[in-house]
Amino acid sequence: MRPHVVAQLAVSLDGMTSGFDVDLARFYALASLWQEDVTLIGADTILAQEAAVLAAPRRGPRAEGPLLAVVDSRARVRSWESLRQLGYWSDVLALYADQTPERPVDATTRELVTGYEQVDLAEVLETLGRRGAQTVRVDSAGALLRACLALDLVDELALLVHPVLVGSGDPWYDTRQLALQHVGTEVFKDGTLWMRYCVAI
Ligand SMILES: NC(=O)c1ccc[n+]([C@@H]2O[C@H](COP(=O)([O-])OP(=O)(O)OC[C@H]3O[C@@H](n4cnc5c(N)ncnc54)[C@H](OP(=O)(O)O)[C@@H]3O)[C@@H](O)[C@H]2O)c1
């Protein structure tokens, strides 16, 4: 059975995903409320932080932490061991496709292969569910989130709306109409909103 899939993203008041300072402490404090079994992240999000990941202290895997599953059909991620040692996740899982380039022979990262050219996100979630995952949190404000939404794979959506207008950039959503059921909104003193919705299919 497919796990419950939640997605949280930080956006500006005009719906942009970058170009402003994200309140990371609040973002991760709120994200941790789901206590996800698996954090699902795209390769581009990992690559955008790779220098910081490589430089971060190696605290070692956190046994009670979620599994980090990274969609990486082009095998671009190299920082697997640093991610595993970061102290947040219990382990890492590379999500590859049939046509993913060959991995180094000494690669030790666990992998799950689905799809032909691209990772099959629905099959990934089914497999994670069969392996016992109940909650998966998608950590993306871009292509991965849009792909999951297009495939009707997201059950719950949370927006951390920062009180700033950016004026230009990439909007987090610009595809088909999506019906949402409002679950709750929290207003913080600095004007940041935490808006939660169920995705109605
Ligand atoms: N504001 C926020 O809350 C927030 C949250 C997370 C990240 N970010 C920022 O967003 C930026 C990255 O966003 P992004 O959109 O470039 O990358 P992303 O969210 O990491 O998405 C790219 C990943 O999605 C995969 N993907 C896309 N469409 C797919 C499909 N149909 N089927 C299967 N896999 C698919 C790509 O696969 P391939 O492996 O084939 O390329 C790639 O691994 C970074 O700068 C990051 O810091 C912001």
UniProtKB/TrEMBL annotation:
Keywords: NADP, Oxidoreductase. GO terms for biological process: riboflavin biosynthetic process. Residues 3-191 form the Bacterial bifunctional deaminase-reductase C-terminal domain. The keyword NADP applies. The keyword Oxidoreductase applies. Pathway: Cofactor biosynthesis; riboflavin biosynthesis. Gene3D superfamilies: Dihydrofolate Reductase, subunit A. InterPro entries: DHFR-like_dom_sf, RibDG_C, Riboflavin_Biosynth_HTPR. GO terms for molecular function: 5-amino-6-(5-phosphoribosylamino)uracil reductase activity. This is 2,5-diamino-6-(Ribosylamino)-4(3H)-pyrimidinone 5'-phosphate reductase. It comes from Kribbella kalugense.
